[in-house]
UniProtKB/TrEMBL annotation:
<dbReference type="GO" id="GO:0006310">
    <property type="term" value="P:DNA recombination"/>
</dbReference>
<dbReference type="GO" id="GO:0015074">
    <property type="term" value="P:DNA integration"/>
</dbReference>
<dbReference type="InterPro" id="IPR002104">
    <property type="entry name" value="Integrase_catalytic"/>
</dbReference>
<dbReference type="Pfam" id="PF00589">
    <property type="entry name" value="Phage_integrase"/>
</dbReference>
<comment type="similarity">
    <text>Belongs to the 'phage' integrase family.</text>
</comment>
<keyword id="KW-0229">DNA integration</keyword>
<dbReference type="InterPro" id="IPR004107">
    <property type="entry name" value="Integrase_SAM-like_N"/>
</dbReference>
<feature type="domain" description="Core-binding (CB)">
    <location>
        <begin position="20"/>
        <end position="114"/>
    </location>
</feature>
<dbReference type="InterPro" id="IPR013762">
    <property type="entry name" value="Integrase-like_cat_sf"/>
</dbReference>
<dbReference type="InterPro" id="IPR044068">
    <property type="entry name" value="CB"/>
</dbReference>
<dbReference type="InterPro" id="IPR010998">
    <property type="entry name" value="Integrase_recombinase_N"/>
</dbReference>
<dbReference type="InterPro" id="IPR011010">
    <property type="entry name" value="DNA_brk_join_enz"/>
</dbReference>
<dbReference type="Pfam" id="PF02899">
    <property type="entry name" value="Phage_int_SAM_1"/>
</dbReference>
<protein>
    <submittedName>
        <fullName>Integrase</fullName>
    </submittedName>
</protein>
<feature type="domain" description="Tyr recombinase">
    <location>
        <begin position="146"/>
        <end position="325"/>
    </location>
</feature>
<dbReference type="InterPro" id="IPR050090">
    <property type="entry name" value="Tyrosine_recombinase_XerCD"/>
</dbReference>
<dbReference type="GO" id="GO:0003677">
    <property type="term" value="F:DNA binding"/>
</dbReference>
Length: 340
């Protein structure tokens, strides 16, 4: 293919597990990175590259920094004619976090091409400051850091009360009271459940990290009832949570299936929000409010970096107020000593 020719990417998944876009260099990169990342990350990267090369229909070796800036502008453009905006930030284009992720994928692709000697420089700029200057500069895309939403105690009770099966109660308990991610709940196997120790083994955590986490006794109660009364005969022998009805009865429950369970419970409980990740955030916020150390929450959450866990300091309503009041009490005593 000529460097100046264009192509239309088409995300396909042939016989092998590595997706393909139909462009040799991009497909080589995807095969290379497949050994370094988890399947979900690989799928996200393949989709990000599909989006980029759809907006900028050039082969990789013809991409310039100007093309990258054009892509950013296109991603910021209003969707659906600008008539729909996000309530969170009032923007009509894609979320800044999504654009940053796509730029990170593109950066990784050109790092690969740079190492191979196929390009002379990285076309994705690190910031708005020229590389020749020592200043750090401003980021290409500024993503505001917002606190995640959590459920109030009454909302959590209403959500659990709206669940219809013991299977669903067991899954929600793992997220709401143990902080498991959606994929970790769906990937739970019978060999991972340790009722004698009151723990579960997370074999496929984010980034491939494994951990053992304690869970509340209520989970084992719901699990026992689910296995005794609801689980179909002949179901997947390894997976704990399977489909209960329909043509896929007995097969491992999918992410879409769990989302559908939560959507129905939200509707019946009259809640406007309650995603799987919000349940996880709620869990760690309540644990922090109860005095659990950040290092312990980090281990429970499976965070690689403690900085990720620090967000729960700010979500905890009592922590900052308590620290402030304690500090002000010390200052008041010092003032009284200096001015008796």
């Amino acid at each position: 293919m000529s460097p100046r020719a264009s192509f239309m990417p088409c995300l396909i998944d042939p016989r092998g597990p590595v997706p393909s876009l139909g462009e040799p260099l991009v497909d080589e990169y995807l095969r290379f990175t497949a050994a370094r990342v988890r399947p979900n990350t690989l799928s996200a990267q393949a989709y990000d590259l599909k989006v980029f090369f759809t907006v900028v229909p050039k082969p990789p070796l013809a991409i310039t920094t100007s093309d990258v800036l054009t892509f950013i502008e296109a991603q910021r453009a209003p969707r659906r004619g600008g008539n729909v905006v996000r309530l969170a930030d009032g923007e009509a284009g894609l979320a800044a976090s999504t654009i940053k992720r796509r730029l990170a994928t593109l950066t990784s692709l050109f790092d690969y091409l740079l190492i191979r000697g196929l390009v002379e420089r990285q076309v994705v700029p690190r910031s708005m400051t020229p590389r020749s200057r020592s200043l750090r500069g401003s980021p290409l895309v500024r993503a505001p850091k917002r606190l995640p939403r959590i459920l109030e105690p009454g909302e959590a009770v209403a959500l659990v009360g709206a669940l219809r099966t013991e299977r669903d109660r067991a899954m929600v308990t793992l997220m709401l009271h143990a902080g498991l991610r959606r994929c970790e709940v769906l990937g739970l196997r019978f060999v991972d459940v340790q009722p004698g120790d009151g723990r579960v083994f997370v074999a496929e955590g984010k980034g491939g990290h494994q951990r053992i986490v304690p869970v509340v006794p209520a989970f084992f109660t719901h699990l026992s009832a689910y296995l005794a009364r609801e689980r179909p005969a002949g179901a997947d022998p390894e997976s704990v949570f399977v489909v209960l009805k329909g043509p896929t009865r007995g097969r491992r429950l999918s992410a879409a299936g769990l989302d559908e369970v939560l959507a129905g419970a939200r509707s019946r409980a009259g809640l406007s929000h309650a995603s799987c990740h919000e349940l996880r955030h709620t869990c760690f916020t309540r644990l922090r409010e109860a005095g659990m150390a950040l290092e312990a929450i980090q281990a429970q959450a499976g965070h690689a970096n403690l900085d990720t866990t620090r967000i729960y300091l700010h979500l905890s309503n009592d922590w900052l107020a308590g620290e402030y009041q304690q500090a002000m009490a010390v200052l008041d005593r010092l003032y009284e000593q200096e001015h008796p």
